[in-house]
Automatic annotation (TrEMBL):
Name by which UniProt lists this protein: Efflux transporter outer membrane subunit
UniProt GO MF annotations: efflux transmembrane transporter activity
Record keywords, A-Z: Lipoprotein, Membrane, Palmitate, Transmembrane, Transmembrane beta strand
Main subcellular location of this protein, as a coarse class: membrane
Membrane topology annotation: Lipid-anchor
Pfam families: OEP
Stated family: Belongs to the outer membrane factor (OMF) (TC 1.B.17) family.
Cellular compartments per GO CC: plasma membrane
Length: 484
């Protein structure tokens, strides 16, 4: 009869298992455009996170040997990336800790205590008030996850771990893009410096020719002064480019995890050709953006936390088992006569908490709404960044065509003005004016090319890292194993 009274408790316990409370996760809807405005009508589909797919060495499309050596060092030595990886490892450990709550906890105790009883409290005092108690016991405790509190906690931690893995990818992609952008900005500074140095060499020859003409009496002292002014001003501009170059070189060193003094990049002109952007950019590329994936996974984590909060409204069921041996003598401690045990479930329910559980539930729902808004905003920002850089590349290409024509005309004008000056038809001030126009047009063309490279790098970053498929990232593979 006693056995039949216990059976319904266990049947009820297992019949309630799986009654997980809280909403199951459904990915929030995001309004997306039918196509990129700047990419010839590229069609979009419902996005699915693909940030586990590696971008591959996307910077290699620039075909720069030194750049190909520098960028891989980011993944090895960059301290910001190491910090993000450490946060990911913390999240992985947190998920393992949450999963452990699904299983029983087993403990053991071995103790020896001596006590003295009070003579007044012991009416049968026989003269010996010292007592020895030896105990060897084991205990098992387990919380039945009837309402899904533990499973929802595990779900939230897994989603948080995936978000942290995406943060690692985002940190890596951001550092790589920053290094590539700084590298081409440095090459632009080099090109500007070399153009100015070419002009300095030309102006030095012009100054010497003007001095000779002045000595021969066919040029005025004002021509010599103007030639000297032009030369020294250009030398100052050339020196000024050194400030930006040094700062960019130092920034590249820090991104590779090195002190600035240990990196020296030789001066080279900006000679790389821009990679061709595909006419139709597939939607799968934007799906690889790790910041979008991280935002979506934080929505999933917040959704699971709602279930955790709602589970607090239901009773918890704990099963505990204790057993062992207890004796006043250690010699015969493990004896059948000294055994003890206890087993049974415990039901606990909070009856009054002044609205605390309701407040925590409302807080979890509000946190979910916040993450949904963040996810949608992150997605919109991703679309904006792609559109911005596509538009920039389209406009810059048109500007470069016109600026190239302007530079050719300025060079022709300079050649004509120089011949006129040598023929005595115009003053040297006219030559200086035309030379400055030609130099400024050449520097402007270089600046536009630098902006092209910057926009290309930013477009690759906005698309999640270029437009070539790759393999799974190592930390994302580990995250996937945690789900198994």
């Amino acid at each position: 009869m006693r056995h039949t009274m216990k059976t319904p408790i266990w049947l009820l316990l297992f019949s309630l298992a799986g009654c997980t409370v809280g909403p199951d996760y459904i990915k929030p809807e995001v309004d997306t455009p039918a196509a990129f405005k700047q990419a010839d009508g590229t069609q979009w589909k419902q996005a699915e996170p693909q940030d586990h797919v590696q971008r591959g060495p996307w910077w290699q499309v620039f075909n720069d040997e030194l750049l190909n050596q520098l960028v891989p060092q980011v993944e090895v030595s960059n301290q910001t990336l190491r910090a993000a990886l450490a946060r990911y490892q913390q999240a992985v450990a947190g998920t393992r800790a949450a999963r452990a709550d699904l299983f029983p906890t087993i403990g053991s105790t071995l103790s020896r205590t001596r006590s003295q009883s009070s003579q007044l409290g012991n009416r049968t005092f026989n003269g010996n008030r010292l007592n020895t108690n030896n105990t060897l016991s084991a205990n098992l405790s387990w919380e039945a996850d009837i309402w899904g509190r533990i499973s929802r906690t595990v779900e939230a931690n897994r989603a948080g771990t995936d978000a942290s893995a995406s943060d690692v990818s985002a940190a890596l992609l951001s550092a790589q893009a920053e290094l590539v952008q700084n590298y081409f900005a440095l090459r632009l500074a080099d090109s500007q410096r070399l153009v100015l140095e070419d002009s300095i060499a030309t102006y030095e020859k012009s100054l010497q020719q003007t001095r000779n003409r002045y000595a021969a009496g066919v040029a005025s002292k004002a021509d010599v002064v103007q030639a000297e002014t032009q030369l020294n001003a250009t030398r100052a501009q050339a020196l000024d480019t050194g400030i930006q170059r040094a700062q960019l070189e130092n920034a590249i060193a820090v991104l590779t995890g090195k002190p600035p003094s240990s990196l020296s990049i030789p001066v080279t002109r900006l000679t790389e050709q821009l990679p061709l952007v595909p006419v139709g950019l597939p939607s799968q590329l934007l799906e690889r953006r790790p910041d979008v994936a991280a935002a979506e996974r934080r929505v999933a984590a917040a959704n699971a936390q709602i279930g955790v909060a709602k589970a607090a409204f239901f009773p918890t069921v704990n099963l505990s088992v204790n057993g062992g041996f207890q004796s006043t003598s250690s010699a015969n401690l493990i004896d059948i006569a000294n055994r003890f045990w206890s087993v049974g479930p415990a039901l606990a329910l909070t009856l009054f908490d002044a609205g605390r559980r309701r407040a925590l539930s409302d807080q979890a729902i509000a946190a979910y709404d916040e993450q949904v808004a963040n996810y949608r905003q992150t997605t919109l920002t991703a679309f904006q960044e792609v559109e911005d850089n596509l538009a920039a590349l389209n406009v810059l290409q048109q500007e470069i065509v016109l600026q190239t024509q302007a530079l050719q005309a300025a060079r022709q004008s300079l050649e004509i003005s120089t011949n006129q000056y040598q023929a005595g038809l115009i003053s040297y001030l006219d030559v200086v004016t035309v030379a400055n126009i030609a130099l400024n047009n050449e520097r402007t063309l270089l600046t536009l090319r630098g902006q092209q490279f910057a926009a290309t790098v930013q477009l690759m970053r906005a698309l999640g890292g270029g437009w070539e498929p790759g393999t799974a990232l190592p930390h994302m593979q580990e995250s996937a194993r945690q789900k198994e």
